[in-house]
From TrEMBL:
The keyword Repeat applies. Signal peptide: none annotated. This is Calponin-homology (CH) domain-containing protein. GO terms for molecular function: actin binding. The keyword Transferase does not apply. It comes from the Eukaryota. InterPro entries: Actinin_actin-bd_CS, CH_dom, CH_dom_sf, Spectrin_repeat. Keywords: Actin-binding, Repeat. Residues 45-149, 158-264 form the Calponin-homology (CH) domain.
């Protein structure tokens, strides 16, 4: 399998053995860019804030949180817990001792788990995490975000980062003043964040009142609405975004992926609900058809039972007039009463066959009419 090893000057290097398509290629493209990654203190600050908020959005499900990203993962305990929460899987039992060796062993258990998910961490060692190395810790958390929040995104035929970008483009397409081309400067004026919310929950955003030249208001509006109504914690400060020439791509991607999961999760649930409704509707329709069949069959049988004795009545007529009346009635029967009943029987047979086909298509058992009401019983 293709693996990308990227060692950069003093940077954490990650190797991806792709479970998902595109993740290795994405890393290869980003190579040059990452050389300057954490040399920019503004980016480091943005990552620290976003990654901390992202970790806490998961850790709170286990009733805990971190305050300081470099410090709070050093003993490996919260790191193991974080991985359990986001993966829904159990990790090996952590060591509870306070010595350095226990901490290293716990961090290694976490790193082994990440590796088991197809991510090879090259030059991110447990010792650096235990020593509180900020660059290594942020690099490690980014690989976790990439693997668990971004890699499995799939939109149309694209996945991971490209899938997320395409999703943003599709969702913001109707908004003329939004043009999402990347995960940095396209988000600076705050309109893209507002458009994403407005597209899914129009009642939360007064989109027409937002002005392109007031980015701080726009960003704060989106972040506050997301926190209050969508359960997406505030992951960046508007000022940090506006005051950097190019906001940190990893921070923006992490923030945007939270919107994707909030909305696509709701959409998946809605799709599932729609599917169930469809199944129920089909079942209901089939039941109506069964009831209609039974009713029509009963009506026909009743008519036949009423008509046969009349037809079989051979009592001779006393007068010529009565004789003519009987002939007249019989002509009426042949011309007026019998044809619609023949038509009804044909319709009954058609309905019966349609119903059986529908039941077969939806994997339901065949329909058995009540005793004596088969199509063949109606003569």
């Amino acid at each position: 399998e293709a693996m990308v090893d990227y060692h950069t000057a003093g940077q954490p290097a990650y190797q991806y053995s792709g479970n998902g398509p595109g993740i290795g290629d994405y890393m290869a493209q980003e190579d040059d860019w990452d050389r300057d990654l954490l040399l920019d203190p503004a980016w480091e600050k943005q990552q620290r804030k976003t990654f901390t908020a992202w970790c806490n959005s998961h850790l709170r499900k286990a009733g805990t949180q971190i305050e300081n990203i470099d410090e709070d993962f050093r003993d490996g305990l919260k790191l193991m817990l974080l991985l359990e929460v986001i993966s829904g899987e159990r990790l090996p039992k952590p060591e509870r001792g306070k010595m350095r060796v226990h901490k290293i062993n716990n961090v290694n258990k976490a790193l082994d788990f990440i590796a088991s998910k197809g991510v090879k961490l090259v030059s991110i060692g447990a010792e650096e995490i235990v020593d509180g190395n900020a660059k290594m810790t942020l690099g490690m958390i980014w690989t976790i975000i990439l693997r668990f929040a971004i890699q499995d995104i799939s939109v149309e035929e694209t996945s991971a980062k490209e899938g997320l970008l395409l999703w943003c483009q599709r969702k913001t397409a109707p908004y003329k003043n939004v043009n999402v081309q990347n995960f940095h400067i396209s988000w600076k004026d705050g309109l893209a964040f507002n458009a994403l919310i407005h597209r899914h929950r129009p009642e939360l955003i007064e989109y027409d009142k937002l002005r392109k030249d007031d980015p701080v208001t726009n960003l704060n509006n989106a972040f506050e609405v997301a926190e209050k109504y969508l359960d997406i914690p505030k992951m960046l400060d508007a000022e940090d975004i506006v005051n950097t020439a190019r906001p940190d791509e990893k921070a923006i991607m992490t923030y945007v992926s939270s919107f994707y999961h909030a909305f696509s999760g709701a959409q998946k649930a809605e799709t599932a609900a729609n599917r169930i409704c469809k199944v129920l509707a089909v079942n209901q329709e089939n039941e109506h058809l069964m009831e209609d069949y039974e009713r029509l069959a009963s009506d026909l049988l009743e008519w036949i039972q009423r008509t046969i004795p009349w037809l079989e009545n051979r009592v001779p007529q006393k007068t010529m007039q009565e004789m003519q009346q009987k002939l007249e009635d019989f002509r009426d029967y042949r011309r007026v009463h019998k044809p619609p009943k023949v038509q009804e029987k044909c319709q009954l047979e058609i309905n019966f066959n349609t119903l059986q086909t529908k039941l077969r298509l939806s994997n339901r058992p065949a329909f058995m009419p009540s005793e004596g009401k088969m199509v063949s019983d109606i003569n």
